[in-house]
Amino acid sequence: MEAIYISNSDSVRRLIDKAHDFNQSLLEELAEGKITEEDWFEINNKYFTEHYLASDNPRSQSGHGGNEQGYFHSHQMLIDVIHKSGTFIDVGCANGYLLESLHRWITNLGYYKLVCYGLDISQGLIELAKKRLPEWSNHFYTGNAVNWAPKEKFDFVCVKELDYAVPGKQQLFLKHLFEHFVKPNGRLILGPYSEETSTPTMYELVTSWGYKPTGYIERSNYKHHDISRRLLWWDL
Ligand SMILES: C[S@@+](CC[C@H](N)C(=O)[O-])C[C@H]1O[C@@H](n2cnc3c(N)ncnc32)[C@H](O)[C@@H]1O
User: Fold this and answer.
1) Order of strands across the sheet with 182-194?
2) All domains of the chain, ordered by start, with CATH?
3) For ligand 1, atom 14, which residue shows the shortest CA distance?
4) 110 vs 103, 158, 232, CA distance in Å?
5) Local confidence band at 227 (pLDDT 50, 70, 90 cut-offs)
6) Measuring from atom 24 of ligand 1, which residue has the nearest CA?
7) pLDDT tens digits, 21-43
């Protein structure tokens, strides 16, 4: 597999810097010992819950700006990694918008059937997900993905980012997902995420941990064509 393209353009830096400003200052406090890991999860949880619940737009409630066209553009690569019917969990599902959208896209295509589940650290967002999608209310769980384990494993496990775990524990988080979430013959999906401006790239990082992805997909950002959106996957 070829190395992944990395852009160093200013627009990439600005976009990613903006999204990670809050996270960055928290990480500094964690590194300096001003807050504990437990505080880190609690503050992040409060931040996500307050920001997402402040909106009445279901896309924003799951952390996405822009219109539906942009949302589809950024996420449609998920359709390409659904290669059979089965169960699907979104780890860090917020209000369930990704599950709702992917389920509709896959159902409309008519090839496969997905049974959707969601996990989020935020009780407020899980309550919203259950309210929005009452037919799946038994399929939404509140828990911290770094140590929560489901009773049954899933055919597809999707996690947008590894920074749901504190730095230094992301390899353990990935291991936890492989061991406790993914069924034999199942597929773990990481992304879609925006390209990194630093090395190693996510692909290189996970490969250096001994988890070389089975494959990846890359396409341009909806508005910023010099930014890539990427998705990695592993087949067990
Ligand atoms: C960017 S949103 C992604 C929402 C959804 N997966 C999507 O793609 O539309 C990140 C979500 O992950 C959740 N989250 C962050 N850290 C988590 C953790 N350690 N365990 C479970 N959920 C977590 C946040 O509460 C937030 O709702």
Assistant:
1) 140-142, 114-120, 86-91, 154-159, 182-194, 228-235, 215-220
2) 10-235 (3.40.50.150)
3) 92
4) 11, 21, 24
5) confident
6) 92
7) 777 888 889 989 999 999 999 99
